[in-house]
Amino acid sequence: MASTLIKKGLDQLKSKEFREYLMSTHFWGPVANWGIPIAAIADTKKDPKFISGKMTLALCLYSMIFMRFAWKVQPRNLLLFACHFTNEAAQLTQGYRFINYNYLSKEKPAEIEAAPATEEVQKQ
Question: pTM for this one?
Answer without folding.
Answer: 0.74
